Amino acid sequence: MTITRYFPCPAASAKPRAMNRTGLVIALGLALVVGVLFGIFPELDLKLAALFYDAAQKTFPLKLDALAAFARDAAMWIAWALVLPAIVAIVVKFIRPDRPMLMSGRAAVFLLATMLLSAGVLTNFTFKSYWGRPRPVVVTQFGGDLQFVPWWDPRGACPRNCSFFSGEGATAFWTYAPAALTPPAWRPLAFAAATVFGVVTSGLRMAFGGHFFTDVAIAGLVSFLVVWLFYALIYRWAATRLTDAQVDAALTRLAQPGYRLMQRWRGQRQAQSGQPQA
């Protein structure tokens, strides 16, 4: 039994509403509004963060709540569980390139590539490492010792693992990717669920004092744009559209040298031990 049934591959002509041009225009419009509004009035970030801050106790109370902490961890487990079939399918393909993939090749590449890019490369390895915006919990307005900076300013004093933009927010909103692969009848519900999942997870990050509103809002928009672009590249645009057979063949070519080397090594080990080769 394969795992294709869990991530059915949409037909090339299928265009989920949130993955078409209308969805792109809405996302870009939201990015413009958030970017300009919070760029002109950066104090809005502080006012929203203050909603979760207890001035009397000088802390963000929810970060000490065990249930909230479990919900935060569970959100990440859910997101990675959704990409796990793609990881397994690609790993198995590299181990046994002579066998067909366990799921749609396009779906596997789409899920893994969007997760790695939105929740890894663009967050932890790029912005969070070089954009020195301090987290709410460490700025002077909330009992810390670092100066607040607006979202657009990379010159903050945070040395590493900084606030802009949210990796967990990007991971949560990445669930737009599996939502895009659901059957058409379920797709609106899947996109709505992904939106709620991203908003709730991002709200927890704000409540813990881990991120400002702009950190999580931009994380969500970046994840959506990455998913939109890769969906268009793999499924929609005729010039770049792929088939499962093409993906399977490409992965087979990549895996064959290592597979042959491993087969040769196994043959040598069997010859040395005197065992007949399979």
Automatic annotation (TrEMBL):
Q: Domain named Phosphatidic acid phosphatase type 2/haloperoxidase: which ranges?
A: 110-231
Keyword Transmembrane helix part of the UniProt annotation: yes
Asked if the Swiss-Prot or TrEMBL record annotates the protein with the keyword Transmembrane, the reply is: yes
Q: Which UniProt keywords apply?
A: Membrane, Transmembrane, Transmembrane helix
Q: Which domain of life is it from?
A: Bacteria
Task: Spell out the InterPro entries in the cross-references.
Answer: PAP2/HPO, PAP2/HPO_sf
Membrane-spanning parts: 23-41, 74-95, 107-127, 216-238
Name by which UniProt lists this protein: Phosphatidic acid phosphatase type 2/haloperoxidase domain-containing protein
- Origin organism is Bradyrhizobium ivorense
